[in-house]
Amino acid sequence: MRAVFCYFVSDLGVGTEAYFHFLPLQNVSEFRYNLSVIILHITFSLVQFSIQYPSESFSLLNVRWCCMLHAVEALWEMGVEKDIDDLPKNDANYTALTPLWFLERAALVHSTRTSLVHGSRSYTWQQTYQRCRRLASALSNLPVDLGSTVAVIAPNIPALYEAHFGIPMAGAVLNAVNIRLNASAIAFLLSHSSAQVVMVDQDLFSLAQESLRIWSLKSESFKPPILIVIGDEHCHPKSLRDAMDKGAIEYESFVESGDPDFRWKPPQDEWQSIALGYTSGTTANPKGVVLHHRGAYLMSLSGALHWGMHEGAIYLWTLPMFHCNGWCYTWTLAALSGTNICLRQVTAKAVYEAITKYKVTHFCAAPVVLNTIVNASPNEVILPLPHVVHVNTAGAAPPPSVIAAMSLRGFRVTHTYGLSETYGPSTICAWKPEWKSFPLEKQAWLSARQGVRYIALEGLEIMNTKTMQPVPSDGVTIGEIMMRGNAVMKGYLKNPKANEKAFANGWFHSGDLAVRHPDGYIEIKDRSKDIIISGGENISSVEIESILFSHPAILEASVVARADEKWGESPCAFVTLKSGVDSSDEQLLAEDIVKFCRTKMPGYWVPKSVVFGPLPKTATGKTQKDLLRAKAKEMGPVIKSKL
């Protein structure tokens, strides 16, 4: 082949042979690049040939072109990496991955097993599958098809669970809306996502109406979406009647109008969108996070695998389903043919009662919920637990003291970490058998780290953002958590600038700062915007918070930077006290807290100011540090600390 090619180019007499000598065969991409250079060179040579020898016939020139093309084709094939065969994909051996198939299997294998429980209502997997098919059918009879967005504004009730299957079964995209947002914020979400249908809980109907009113005022092209109101036995019947009187379609009637044998639409492409969620948007408009069927499928199974969930698991919905689609456990429970126990409102008493009544085996919750369980009053607690209950916590770094307290009560806590952009948790603090021999305090500290990647996340690094090189695994050097793989979102909806920034250099940039320990486990130190720089030294607010949580009087704590005349910034602690703590002398309490901190941390970490009161929270229990930063700014700079 080389001889034929060399003969051809040398016959042109223009020195192309020199290029071929340096054509590397070991690197496919470089090989093809150099080959393209040769093709351009030969094309130029042929043009020169036709000018130099105009008397040559067209047929001779055509022969030369054909020779060149055959030679290049042969060389190109040399640069192609081939599999053992050239067998194609077909309908028999390839199906796009989607978690929707989990529901069909659950209905087939465990048709009579209880799928959902909500108050006095319960369904089997066969009934749930039929209801989801009816929902998909009814939606398809509306102007809902591939790529349409259907928003659901509801707490943890069966209709929201059914929406996770019925909406994508119609080819549409589910947007489960945070119910703790105000009307203005929801109006932005509905407008940005171009929602064509809005399903809303009866108690939230007035919120939805106000959101639509705001949307209509801000958009000249506003077209009101179809409203479907969801009734619930835990709500007053009047609010359901009022919504229907205002033209809303009643959910149960809507579902009944659908075909239980509807031939639902599995995605033709697993990259097809299945869900749309939104970031918290504390400093700007929230960003729309688009997730695909493939990621939802893989993360649903990864969550079960890493958590050690078993078939038939009984899962309590303490985590809002609207938060990252319930961390994908909406689909996981169908894969396991488990049982969903719905909670409209989460209290410590409701959690303990559900564990006793339904034999709950698993639940997920933000650390604030664990704190509520640990500090529940005696009349809310049912101990000892009838069995070990597995708890998955994420959303913020859980204090080791809370993990230790949960363990003493019979809960086995697993710490995970992730973002809306990674389908919820995508790393896990995987338990190691040798940790069992350690003191409980050390076990709790080890378990409070963010750990290692899920099996569906192919890349996890702590990077120096300037060099894009991994930081040393020394537990000290801070870098940014970066990820890549199937567990990363498709991108932000209608936001190319944000996508360019988020995916720079082939990695998803989380904005979270962490270290990697010698055992390979990562540990978050802070959000990049939450690092406190005092006297030129970086201080982790998370580490101060962890120590504050161990103070006997403190229920919750959050630390932010406050301007400081001497140091530039200094830590400001916002603290919620436990019930029963005497708070009549806040100055004395603050001095006691500072004295406690001085025995536990470096001097420059010790808060220069302490503020008492409830902490502002997001819908998922995260402390709204942006509001605390604003409050610290209003307080003005620390001139001379009184503590």
From TrEMBL:
GO cellular component, as recorded: cytosol
InterPro entries on file: AMP-bd_C, AMP-bd_C_sf, AMP-dep_synth/lig_dom, ANL_N_sf
Protein keywords: ATP-binding, Ligase, Nucleotide-binding
Nucleotide-binding in keyword set: yes
Compartment(s) where it occurs, according to its Swiss-Prot or TrEMBL record: Cytoplasm, Cytosol
Cleaved signal peptide residues: none
Residue ranges occupied by any AMP-dependent synthetase/ligase domain in the UniProt entry: 103-493
Gene Ontology MF annotations: 2-methylbutanoate-CoA ligase activity; ATP binding; medium-chain fatty acid-CoA ligase activity; propionate-CoA ligase activity
Principal location listed in the UniProt entry: cytoplasm
Residues annotated as domain AMP-binding enzyme C-terminal: 543-622
Protein family according to the UniProt entry: Belongs to the ATP-dependent AMP-binding enzyme family.
The name this protein goes by in its record: Acetate/butyrate--CoA ligase AAE7, peroxisomal
